[in-house]
Amino acid sequence: MFKTRLLSGILLMIVALVTVISGGGILFATLLIISLIGMSELYKILDVHNKLLGCVGYVGAIIYYGLLWFGYEEWIICMSIGFLILLMAVYVFSYPKYHADQVMMTFFGLFYVAMMLSYVYQARELPQGAFLVWLVFICSWGCDTCAYCVGVLIGKHKMAPKLSPKKSIEGAVGGVAGAALIGALYALAVNHFAQVGAPVGMYAAIGAVGGLISMVGDLAASAIKRNHNIKDYGKLIPGHGGILDRFDSVIFTAPIIYYMAVLFMK
């Protein structure tokens, strides 16, 4: 099991490396596919993944990405309102086929998965984006690794005992500190090898904040699974589960890192 999980993790990192370095259309298309799969995993929880309600969700994600690709971001709020109206139309005209919680999950899925993940692409398109976008993964997976190691070594106080009994406050502090350190070392590395001029302090701060937010993403995904009595969202990635099991923290860190970069790295 450990070897399968390790090999899957390495393969996932290689795919992420190639995709992010390629940027542009390849990264965009990859994120769209990942978003649709992730939405499908979420929709399966309430059995709308292969029904009309779920199809409306998938179409909404495709339209959203289309607006993003063609530079019509100002229409996203309008699209969101139209998406909600269309969902409610399906709900009322097919009543009582669907329940209100299914409609809310479908609406939630567009924002939680597709829109949040799209910030990986948006971060890649920023100045220094080819380097900055890696902070999304460094914060998420780096924090997770550091938190696990520190938690195993000195973890005593439970952070969320009912939701995730193995996570400790000491591990969380270690994860945030580790993500900040990795962010700083990453900035030093790209400055040395690529002459980028990345601000070390800012990369460390983004690493710390991103690491903290990534834990919220991880716990949020766990809470949804526990509410619906499922172990994993899917079986797509051997040893890891589904897309949402692997990208639960990335979903939260991507928009945070994007907006921190926009606000503080002008």
Can you lay out the helices and strands and say which pair or pack?
Blueprint: H1 2-22, H2 24-44, H3 52-69, H4 76-93, H5 100-124, H6 129-132, H7 134-154, E1 158-160, E2 164-168, H8 169-194, H9 200-227, H10 243-264
Features:
single chain, 266 residues, mainly alpha, globular
Description:
The chain has 266 residues and is mainly alpha-helical. It has ten helices and two strands; from the N terminus they run H-H-H-H-H-H-H-E-E-H-H-H. It has helices at residues 2-22, 24-44, 52-69, 76-93, 100-124, 129-132, 134-154, 169-194, 200-227, 243-264, and strands at 158-160, 164-168. A two-stranded antiparallel sheet has the order 1-2. A hairpin with a 3-residue loop joins strand 1 and strand 2. Helix 2 (24-44) runs antiparallel to helix 5. The longest helix has 28 residues, at 200-227. It is globular, with a radius of gyration of 19 Å. Mean pLDDT is 88; it is low at 1-8.
Structural class: mainly alpha
Terminus-to-terminus distance: 45 Å
Strand content: under 5%
Mind summarizing the main beta sheet?
2 strands, antiparallel
Number of helices: 10
Note poorly predicted spans.
Answer: 1-8
User: Which strand order does the major sheet show?
Assistant: 1-2
User: Level of helix content?
Assistant: over 70%
Structural Rg: 19 Å
Query: How many distinct beta strands?
Result: 2
Overall mean pLDDT stands at 88
Order of helices and strands: HHHHHHHEEHHH
- Overall 3D geometry? globular
